[in-house]
C-alpha cells in the first residue's frame, strides 16, 4: 500500500471517529455537524463554535550678598580683572558652580595655577600660595546655611489655622537646589542608612507612620508624625511665607531668572528633588495648592507574585544601599549617584555616600555636568537592555537600577491658583505679625490644603487567577454549548477507552 492510500485511509478513519463522537455527544449542536445536512447548516454551527503629601520649599536666592556679590565676581572673571575682589569672594563664587549655570564657571574663568598674592594682593595662610581649586567641599552645607539669603527665622508659618514659628515645623535640608526647608518629612537619619555620611542639621520627631500600613490604629492624633490634616479646605491649610530682601536678588546665576521660592510636594519618606518636580511662587505672589491625593495599593491576592510580575515593591522588600526605606524616588536618586560615581569617581554634595566615597572637587564640576547630560541616555539604554559606551574610551557604564514603584504609593496632584499679593499694603496683609515688614522685602507665600475629605484609591489585583480561568471557561462552555463534567467524561471515553475497545474487537482503532 503506497503512502497516498495510507494517508487517505487515515483521514477517513479520523472523519468516521469524529462523526461517531458528534452523534453521541451530549454537547448541544455537535450532532448537527454529523447529520447529513447541507453545507450552509454545517458552516453556521462551525461559526457558532469558533466565535465563542510632605512639603519642601527652596528659595531661589541662594546666597546673601554679605558673603558674595555673584554678579560682581562674574563680571570680573569674564573681564579677567580680579583686582578689587578677595580670595574669599572668589572661593564662594567657585562654590556656586554647583548651583548656577555651568557656562558661568567655564574653564576659561578658572583660576588654575595662579598666585593668591598676585590676584588678590593677599598673603595665603598656607605654605602654598597657589589658588586651591582642588580643595574639598565637605563644608558646603555649612556654607549654604551660613550664607543663606533667605532664612527660616524671617519666615512665618501657619498650620490648621494656628500661627507657629517656622523653625518648629520646618527643618533645613540640603538638596540638588541647595539649602531648602521641609515640612512634615521624615528625619534624614530615618530615611538613610547608617552607612550614609551626609550633613544633617537637627533631629525631627520619631515617625509613627509606616509606608506600607499607614498610622497605627491606636495612634493619638496630636502625637502622630508626620502631622495629619484631618479636615479639608483652605482654613485647614499649611501656610508658609518667605521674605526676600530686594537687595538679595541674583539674576545672573540661572538662565531663567525665577525669583521667589519653588515648592515640591512628596511623600514623607522620599528625598525631594526640587530641581526636577516643583511649582514656582514668584515675588509678592500668593499661590494656593489644592491637593488631590492619588493612592495606589495592592490586595492580598498578589502578595505572593514576583515583584516584576506585579510591577511594584513593598518598601521593605527591596533593599537599597543608602536608604533605609524604599521608594521609586529614593531608588532613582541612588541610581543617579551610582552613575555619577562610575563616571567621575566621586559624587556631588547632595548625593548619599559612605566613608569610601569622596566628594567631587571644584575641578571635577565639568565631569558632574557631563554626567548629568549623559544620564538620561544611560537610563534609556538600561531600559532597552543595552550598554552605553562613554565617549573617548571603551569603558562601558551599565545601570541596573530596577526602580519599580512601591506597592502602596501616594502621588499628590495639585490644582494651582496664583494671585498678586500687595504685601506692603496694611489693608491686605494676611498676618498681624507681618505688618511691620517694610518695602525692603518681597514676600512669597504658599497655601497648601486637601481639596476633599475623601478620595478614591486605586487597588491592584490579579485580573484572572487559576480558579477564575477554569470557572470562566467552564461557565462560557456550559452557557453556549452545554459543556459539563459529563462532557469531559465523554471526551475521555471516546478518545481513549473507545479507541482501545475498537481495536480489540475489529483490529482497527476507528472500528
From TrEMBL:
Protein origin, superkingdom: Eukaryota
Gene Ontology, cellular component aspect: membrane
GO molecular function: sodium channel activity
Primary location: membrane
Lipid bilayer topology: Multi-pass membrane protein
Protein's cellular compartments: Membrane
The keyword Iron-sulfur belongs to this UniProt entry's keyword annotation: no
Record flagged with keyword Ribonucleoprotein: no
Entry keyword set: Ion channel, Ion transport, Membrane, Sodium, Sodium channel, Sodium transport, Transmembrane, Transmembrane helix, Transport
Chain ranges passing through the membrane: 476-495
InterPro entries (alphabetical): ENaC (IPR001873)
Family as reported in the entry's similarity comment: Belongs to the amiloride-sensitive sodium channel (TC 1.A.6) family.
Protein name: Uncharacterized protein
Species of origin: Cryptolaemus montrouzieri
